[in-house]
């Protein structure tokens, strides 16, 4: 589906990019694209190291269908204030401030919009969205989890990987980079971890050329240790069985960054979830994949929202 390809490298003329301040005053960069006659509103939450510009093509798809679309960069990345003295490192001592930011933003954002309110989370954003829903600090009419980080891939397994990350966190500066690259150590071709689509992959680099300050590199040891620990706590949380928000979950079986099997196991615990799986044709960034994968992902989301939410 290339209908909205022109949006990949240009902000919509009728969209707004502004600064929202969290409860503690932290500057958060936000994006808002109101529909002329909205059927409802979507809040899209990106993954670790992401910026909302990467998803403008998908935003255009939903906006054309009548949705007002909003997003914000998590604190510590993109155009929001950084959390490490080295601005290239994606650091977090605790994920709780991100949940608090989402809850605080949601309260104001939901009050601004009529109609169904949908939250979509990709990767780390998927974990944070589900955690917020389980904790009942946001109240969406529907949620969509796209390749959610509900377990991390590790060459030594999640248990040993989490133990090692916790050890390295204590062994030195917890805000130091866990490795030199971006997503995963030892990967020869970063693109293959994310998408088979060369052009969509290149869009990210284009945006960073325009605004180098948006780019983020590897995670810190503290972030990595917390990611293992936080996803493990969520997988064992009995409150999953009480999270009633309708939730389609889109998973790439060969995802090399997050554990799709762990995500599917969580999907089986949710009372109103629909798991849509992709095979060897799909990598981590399903909404930035080649057209056959991306079209199927968008169609699954559209169908679910059409069926479950009144137009």
Automatic annotation (TrEMBL):
GO function term, MF aspect, one: hydrolase activity
InterPro entries: AB_hydrolase_fold (IPR029058), Hydrolase_4 (IPR022742), MAG_DAG_Lipase (IPR051044)
Keywords, in A-Z order: Hydrolase
SUPFAM superfamilies the record matches: alpha/beta-Hydrolases (SSF53474)
PANTHER family: PHOSPHOLIPASE-RELATED (PTHR11614)
UniProt name for this protein: Alpha/beta hydrolase
Domain Serine aminopeptidase S33 as annotated: residue spans: 38-291
Coiled coil: none
